[in-house]
Amino acid sequence: PVHIGETGWATMSNGPYGADGSKAADEYKSGKYYRLIREWSNAAKVTCFYFEAFDEQWKDSDNPLGSENHFGLINLKGEAKYAIWNLVDEGKFEGLTRDGMPITKTYNGQREDLLLEALLPPMTIP
């Protein structure tokens, strides 16, 4: 059997993957990656550890906007990121809290608001 020991995608970066770099790190792209890797791994019968459940502000404590702090599927405010909005809709977090607060969705579940902050990679349009 095949197992992927760790995979994930940051939702924010003030470094080379953020707004001033490749623009790869945002919540929309992270969500798309999560869904695609889950579809593929399920179809291929490959297990994987998705990194990680919660954002960890101590990973790069001197740089709060650094990508290492933003790999979680749930942010520090207890909001489920786009990747798992469907689990909130399905009631999977019913009765669970993070720091006493119920698990809700980022962007209040408004996909249009999420897309307004999605970073488009640099490109030239002829």
SSE diagram, text form:
Elements: E1 3-7, H1 27-44, E2 47-50, E3 79-80, H2 85-89, E4 97-98, E5 101-102, E6 104-105, H3 111-116
Parallel strand pairs: 1-2, 3-6
Antiparallel strand pairs: 4-5
Summarize the structure in words.
The structure is a single chain. With 126 residues, the protein is α/β, with parallel strands linked by helices. The chain is 23% helix and 13% strand. The strands form three sheets. It has a two-stranded parallel ribbon. The chain has a two-stranded parallel sheet with strand order 3-6. Strands 4-5 form a two-stranded antiparallel ribbon. The longest helix has 18 residues, at 27-44. The chain is globular, with a radius of gyration of 15 Å. The N and C termini lie far apart (47 Å).
Question: How many DSSP helices?
Answer: 3
The amount of beta strand, in percent, is 5-15%
Q: How many extended strands? A: 6
Helix proportion:
10-25%
Count of domain modules: 1
The N- and C-terminal alpha carbons lie at a distance of: 47 Å
Query: Which stretches are poorly predicted, pLDDT < 50 over at least 5 residues?
Result: none
What's the short version?
This protein is α/β, with parallel strands linked by helices and about 130 residues long. The chain has helices at about 25-45, 85-90, 110-115; strands at about 5, 45-50, 80, 95-100, 100, 105. It has one domain.
Keywords:
126 residues; alpha/beta; two-stranded parallel sheet; 23% helix
